């Protein structure tokens, strides 16, 4: 049974909704956030690299900066 409000995400063992890890590739994130996500960045770059380049603390803060 699908848990309401998870939108394809899953919960960790402690019940917390898991977050994207720094090793997630830009290509994967573009499937969710669109082709304009991290424009000018290679699709095989990692989220951790993009966060450093853009000076963002998290994926959420990076998306809000747009």
Describe the structure.
With 66 residues, the protein is mainly alpha-helical. It has a domain at 26-65. 35% of the residues lie in helices and 0% in strands. The protein is built from three helices and no strands. The chain starts with 25 loop residues before the first helix and ends with a helix. The model has no long low-confidence stretch (mean pLDDT 81).
Note the topology.
Blueprint lengths: L25 H8 L13 H8 L4 H7 L1
Q: Structural class of the helices, strands and pairings?
A: mainly alpha
Unreliable segments of 5+ consecutive residues: none
Q: What is the global morphology?
A: globular
Rg to the nearest angstrom?
A: 13 Å
List the total number of helices. 3
Question: Nutshell version of this structure?
Answer:
It contains three helices and no strands. With 66 residues, the protein is mainly alpha-helical.
Jot down its keywords.
66 residues; mainly alpha; 3 helices; 35% helix
């Amino acid at each position: 049974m699908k848990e309401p409000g998870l939108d394809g995400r899953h919960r960790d063992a402690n019940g917390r909704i898991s977050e994207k890890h720094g090793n997630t590739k830009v290509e994967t994130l573009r499937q969710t956030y669109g082709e304009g996500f991290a424009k000018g960045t290679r699709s095989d770059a990692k989220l951790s690299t993009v966060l450093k380049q853009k000076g963002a603390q998290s994926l959420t803060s990076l998306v809000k900066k747009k």
